[in-house]
């Protein structure tokens, strides 16, 4: 049985690295693996179709499209531009003010979108041109845009958190709250780096001139006030509702999407923009939901074959030290991050690694935040680096090279891993808020 498990896991990983879509790879490994173990194609298809049907019946899956739709409405309303303008003025006298404003704007935007790619695309068009116009070093400017976009997957609501919670059957609300403190710590580290780099090398990030933001029209102030109050209101509604126990994550997602639609209407969105946002949300979430269905089948295959026990025995045969085991998991995630996207890494590995971590006594919320941070670092890792390619495609400058973006994002990659290790070493960073406030 152990040999069968490793055989089909090997086939699945081979398909992934050959470029076969992860959903297809999961499905092939699950169907043929269960067939191999049961010896009957009819029984195998019956087991797996039942698993897929049960997955489709879970109402928790509606959380994903609703949160994505909320982010699409806010993104298309122009609220991100207003947030960035407000942050620019707030940090006017801070070294590296535009970089600090970019991190701060991304932190706020992350509390609405839940998708790092959306943040990277938005701030590539907003922040990068302003930083370059002021004389910022291009690699520094590109790095802060790509690096701070990672906050979108840590500060709730986060699509990766929802997927992790669905796979491990832990509370989405608890996982959301668990990400708040590490997210703020990471944002603070990012801001600290921006300020220190600007002070050590003033030519990297020249000081902002107060005249740049001296004249603000009445219309612009009105627009910024609407955006600011609306986003604060949405954050309080969604996160506060879950935090206070007034709303389930599904209800919070529904109210958040309705609230974001109202914000869009206030900001001038019309039927075309609304329908475009709905279309984009569907285009984003449909592949995710297919992946989750296939992941449910994959989890059933692992459970039937005793994969977790087999892999755990293999890892403990190398070393029984929990620290060594965690280093092995850490390295596997880093290597996969070079070639596979974040969602796929979670779907492939979490059903295996989460029970192993639980067996070693690691707090499930701390392990989840640790994993999301390490996996998210893969978005900045060559050669895949999805956020790097997103920034390259989004910046209004054809002369920007991938090398410049990778170089500028290295400090943020390091800081993400530092915070990941801190969460693992001090689980209270992730578990304290959920245990005391929910």
Shape call = globular
Low-confidence stretches: none
Radius of gyration: 22 Å
Distance between the termini: 42 Å
Write the H/E string, N to C: HHHHHHHHHHHHHHHHHHHH
* Structure annotation, total helices: 20
Helix content: over 70%
Description:
By secondary structure, the chain is an all-alpha fold. It has helices at 2-17, 22-38, 41-56, 63-77, 79-90, 97-113, 116-133, 138-149, 159-168, 172-200, 218-244, 249-266, 271-305, 307-318, 322-337, 342-359, 364-377, 386-394, 402-425, 428-437. Helix 4 runs parallel beside helix 12 and helix 10 packs across helix 19. The longest helix is centred in the middle third of the chain and has 35 residues, at 271-305.
Précis, in short:
Helix content is 79%, strand content 0%.
Secondary-structure topology with pairs:
Elements (H helix, E strand, L loop, with lengths): L1 H16 L4 H17 L2 H16 L6 H15 L1 H12 L6 H17 L2 H18 L4 H12 L9 H10 L3 H29 L17 H27 L4 H18 L4 H35 L1 H12 L3 H16 L4 H18 L4 H14 L8 H9 L7 H24 L2 H10 L1
Helix pairs in contact: 1-2, 2-3, 2-13, 3-13, 4-12, 4-13, 5-6, 5-11, 6-7, 6-8, 6-10, 7-8, 7-18, 8-18, 8-19, 9-16, 10-17, 10-19, 10-20, 11-12, 13-16, 14-16, 15-16, 15-17, 16-17, 17-19, 18-19
Task: Write a concise keyword list for the protein shown above.
438 residues, single chain
